[in-house]
Amino acid sequence: MVTTFLGELYGSFAWIPTGVLAAALALKLPAVIRLWREPLLRAVGGLLLLACALFVSVTPSVIGWTNRVTGMPNFSAPWVYSLLMAYSGAGLLLLVAWRDGLSDRSNATRRARRWVISVYSGVIVALWVLFALADVPVERVRDLDTYYANTPFMREEILLYLLAHTVAVLITVRLIWNWVRADGLHGWLRWGLTSLGAGYVLDLVFDLAKLTAVVARWTGHDLDTLSTDIAPCAACLAAVLTAVGFILPHTGQYLHDRLRVRLAHHRLRPLYVLMRTVDGEGGVPFLLFAAPELRLTRRETYIRDVLLPLARHLDEDLRCRAQRAALALGCTPRRAKALAAAVAILNAVDSAGRPALHGAGHPDTADLLQEIGPLSRALRRRDAIDAVRATVRGGGTGTGATEPAGTAHANPAGG
Question: Rounded to whole angstroms, what are the CA distances from 238 to 141, 164, 185, 200?
Fold first, then answer.
C-alpha cells in the first residue's frame, strides 16, 4: 500500500525536480555564459543541463513518446542510461574543478578530466552496443530494469549503468563529506554542500534499490516495487536536494545581503524622520525601481547632510553627562554612547534656530556621523532616553529637556 502510494506520488510529481533543476540552471546560466572559460562554472552548467534533460527524459509520458517517435519499443532505455552516465561524469568533473580550483592547467587535473571523460564515454558506447545486441521487443515504461533483468545483453547493460553510477556517487559523497568537515568552510557554502551531499546519498539509495530488485529477479524473487516505486522517489528527492545545493551558496548569500541592506534602511527611519523635521523639506524622493543599496545610500547621505549643520547646536557637556547617566543605569558602553548622542541630538533639535549654547564645547561630529545606525536605534526607545534625561536632571545638571520625569524608572539597558 505504501509503495503504491509512492508510485502514484512519483507519477504526479515527477516534473517537480525538473522545475527545481531548471530554476537552478536559470540562476547559474548568466555566470556560466559570462565566465565560460572557467572550468568550474562550465562543470556546474553542464551538470544542471544534463540533470534537466535526464529528468525530462525519464518521465513515463516522455519515455512512451520517445519510443513512438523512434519506432523502437525501448529506445528510451539506452538514451536515459546515457544521460545518466553523462550526468555522473559531469558530477565527477565538477569535483575535479572544485578540488583543483578554477585552474585546469596542472597535469593531475588534466589527467583526472581525461580519465573521467574516457571512462564514462566508453560506458555510454558500451550501453548502445549492448542494447543493439539485446532482444527487447516488449515496451516497458516503468519496470524495464526488472522485466529484462535476465535477458542476455540487456542484463549486462542494466548492471553496467547501475555500477558505473554507483561508483560515481560513492566518490562524490566521500569528497563532499571531506569538504563539509574541512576547517574554514561555513555559511551558505557549507549548507549548499550539505544539501548536495544529501542529494547524492539519495542517488545511492536509488542505485541500491535498483540493484536489489535486479538481483532478486536473478534469484527468482520479486522485489520489483523497489525499482518501480522506491527508486524513482529517491531520485526525485535527490534531484531537488542537488538543485538546492547549487542554489543555496549564491541565492542564499544574495538574499542575506538584500535583507541586511533593507534592515539597515528600516533601522535608520527614526533618525531620518527626525532629520526631516529639522530640514523642513520632503526628505529623500521615493524612487520606485531604485535598488535597496541606492535607497540606503541616499538615506544615509540625507541624514548626514542634515546632521552636520545641526551639530553646532550640540551640547557636548550634556552628552558626556548623559553617557555617564546611562552607564549608571546599567547600559553597556556602546548603548550608553548611543543614548547620550540621542539625548544631545533631541536637545539640539529643540535648540535649532536659537543661538548655540554658551560653553557647549566642541562636538565630535565625525564620530557622530559614523554612528548614525546606533543613534537611530536609540531613538526608538524614548522611554530609555527619558530615563537618562531624568537621571541627568536628578544629578542637578539640567538638560533643557521638556519630557516629564514620570518615565524616570524605565530601564534604558533593555532593547
Answer: 21, 17, 23, 6
Which tens digits make up the pLDDT trace of 301-345?
Answer: 888 888 888 777 777 888 888 888 888 888 888 888 888 888 888
Query: What global pTM score does this model have?
Result: 0.67
Does residue 138 or residue 1 have the better pLDDT?
138
How far is C-alpha 375 from the geometric centre of its chain's CA atoms? 32
Helix axes 154-180, 107-133, angle to 10 degrees: 150
**DSSP sequence for 88-153:** HHHHHHHHHHHHHTT---SHHHHHHHHHHHHHHHHHHHHHHHHHHHS---S--SS-HHHHTTTSTT
Handedness of CA 327, 331, 334, 339 (dihedral sign): negative
Distance CA 83, CA 80 (A): 5
Mention every residue, 6+ apart, whose C-beta is less than 8 A from residue 292. Answer: 258, 261, 262, 265
Q: Note whether 42 and 269 are within 8 A (CB).
A: no
Rounded CA-CA distance 18/83 in Å is 14
Helices 187-218 & 253-267, crossing angle to 10 degrees? 150
pLDDT tens string 184-230 = 666 777 888 888 889 999 999 999 999 999 999 999 999 999 998 89
Q: What length does the chain have?
A: 415
Using CA atoms, how far residue 144 sits from 213, 234, 281, 356, in Å, is 11, 18, 75, 89
3-state helix, strand, coil in the chain (%, to 5): 75, 0, 25
Domains in the chain (CATH in brackets) are: 2-258 (1.20.1070.10), 277-407 (no CATH)
Handedness of CA 301, 306, 307, 312 (dihedral sign): positive
**Do 189 and 197 meet the contact criterion of CB atoms below 8 Å apart?**
no
- Residue type at position 403: E
